[in-house]
Amino acid sequence: MSQNTATEYEAVIGLEIHVQLSTNTKMFCGCQLQFGADPNTLTCPVCLGHPGTLPVPNEKAVRYAIATGLALGCSIAPRSMFHRKNYFYPDLPKGYQISQFDVPICSDGELAGVRIHRAHMEEDAAKNIHVGESGRIHGAGRTVVDYNRGGTPLVEIVTEPDIRSGAQAREWLQLLRATIKQLGVSDVNMEEGSLRCDANISIRPVGATELGTKTELKNMNSFRFIERGIDAEIARQTALVNAGEKVRQETLHFDPSTGSLTSLRSKEESHDYRYFPEPDLVPVAPPAELIEEIRASLPELPLEKADHFENGLGLSVDTARFLAFNAEIGAYYQEVLLEAGADVDAKRTADWVTGELVARIGADADPAESKVTPVALAQLVTMVGEKKVTNAGAKTVLDRLVESGGVPEQIVEAEGLAAMGDGDELAGIVDAALEANPKAVDDMKAGNMKAIGAVIGFVMKQTQGRADGGEVTRIVREKLGL
Ligand code: ADP
Ligand code: ZN
Ligand code: MG
């Protein structure tokens, strides 16, 4: 039988996130961790995989892994093992990575509706650096290895396939990043690779419960690319299936500059790695008291923060989540509130931060690194509240602050942006506006107050935005006896 209606598909997405822990030293040796140091200056026989050396676990890394698991609502295993994951690659001098296998230190958690399958400890590989064409090997470029990164402590977080779109993946990852940042266990700097994300993607007919064949998008290093990469892959799979073809299980690379997806390799299975228990390490068995001590020291996390923004400060759900999940913007907002003092309007302040400021510097930028200091923005918002400057005037002030910093009061003064009070000057301009808009006056008298728009527009034009709309409305009503 032929089917007339096209099948509707839904996307199913699970994420694997690698987080570099910001300990002072590496996972199994005493080498310093430092991003950007001269290549191969932070190494020792242990992390270079010399025979006869022995790994010693980093206690702080274990604590950080437990803190991460607790923040994600996981159970902490009373006893978990390290395993060797065997494979050959130049960035892995031992020929295996010390990781965890059947019993991870953290499992069965949940963050904002996405279940956490597991979070385990492992060590990072070194960094292969592909340098330009050398011509030595059949014209291919050369690859050199910087072993400084090798042995960096990692937590790998694996979600259940509970995500349904690129946008949801992006928002959830922002929450995860903010959560880890708040814990203080990682720099979570995506450009430097301290937070890296792989996305597993499949589609299935809406209503189906079985999972489709998945592909894996490797190592995307910005939230925007993750969202775009996932959406591109969903579109690719949907087109394939609609054309009667099958999705092949493979690993893909998303090129953000072209939007294209290319195949890297067919995926290894877990048995290809010949996992076996690390014979040089005893199991990790954190005492219950240690786990409780770590639990008790967890800071206020972004989800609680969102709740506080929404229910304590009266922000909308969306604004509250945006601020709480975007760690830097949220911290900046709280700083502005603090500078502005107890009487400030938290909602108006949020609008200026999430609306006007973000529109000017971009949602991925850290406002603390902009030229607009929290003190300056606090002052500007206060001036708007006190009607010393209109919204339109304040936007001009913010333009100047973003360009070159400065003090709002001085900018208002220098650029003649001070709001017009309720003095005779404004009344005179309103008179002129009413005279110039007789139809609007008739309409208002007939009960259509929307017509006031034309009058306000006239006044704003005359005053270059320095008049307060509310004040103009008040004067108009007074003059027309409405
Ligand atoms: P693999 O053995 O290929 O590594 P796992 O079962 O370990 O796969 O899962 C890895 C990640 O892929 C997890 O985040 C999981 O939620 C996700 N995942 C597994 N199967 C699917 C699927 N069919 N569609 C989308 N994501 C999936
Ligand atoms: Zn070392
Ligand atoms: Mg896996």
Q: If you had to describe this structure to a student in words, what would you say it looks like?
A:
With 482 residues, the chain is an alpha+beta fold. It has three domains: 6-295, no CATH class; 302-414; 424-480, Arc Repressor Mutant, subunit A, CATH 1.10.10.410. The protein is 39% helix and 19% strand. It is built from 15 helices and 14 strands. The chain has helices at 59-71, 166-183, 223-242, 288-296, 302-312, 317-325, 327-340, 346-361, 374-385, 391-404, 408-414, 424-436, 438-445, 452-463, 469-480, and strands spanning 9-20, 75-76, 83-86, 96-99, 106-111, 114-123, 127-137, 140-146, 153-159, 195-205, 215-220, 251-255, 260-265, 276-277. The chain has a nine-stranded mixed β-sheet with strand order 2-5-6-9-1-10-11-12-13. α3 (223-242) links the parallel β11 (215-220) and β12. 37% of the residues are buried. The mean pLDDT is 92. It binds adenosine-5'-diphosphate, zinc ion (ZN) and magnesium ion. Adenosine-5'-diphosphate (ADP) binds at residues 12-16, 158-161, 200-202, 211-212, 214, 270.
Which features does this protein show?
single chain, binds magnesium ion, Arc Repressor Mutant, subunit A, alpha+beta, 482 residues, binds adenosine-5'-diphosphate, binds zinc ion
Give the helix/strand layout.
Layout (H helix, E strand, L loop, with lengths): L8 E12 L38 H13 L3 E2 L6 E4 L9 E4 L6 E6 L2 E10 L3 E11 L2 E7 L6 E7 L6 H18 L11 E11 L9 E6 L2 H20 L8 E5 L4 E6 L10 E2 L10 H9 L5 H11 L4 H9 L1 H14 L5 H16 L12 H12 L5 H14 L3 H7 L9 H13 L1 H8 L6 H12 L5 H12 L2
Parallel strand pairs: 11-12
Antiparallel strand pairs: 1-9, 1-10, 2-5, 3-4, 3-14, 5-6, 6-9, 7-8, 10-11, 12-13
The structure holds adenosine-5'-diphosphate, zinc ion and magnesium ion (MG).
The site of zinc ion has 8 residues, from loops.
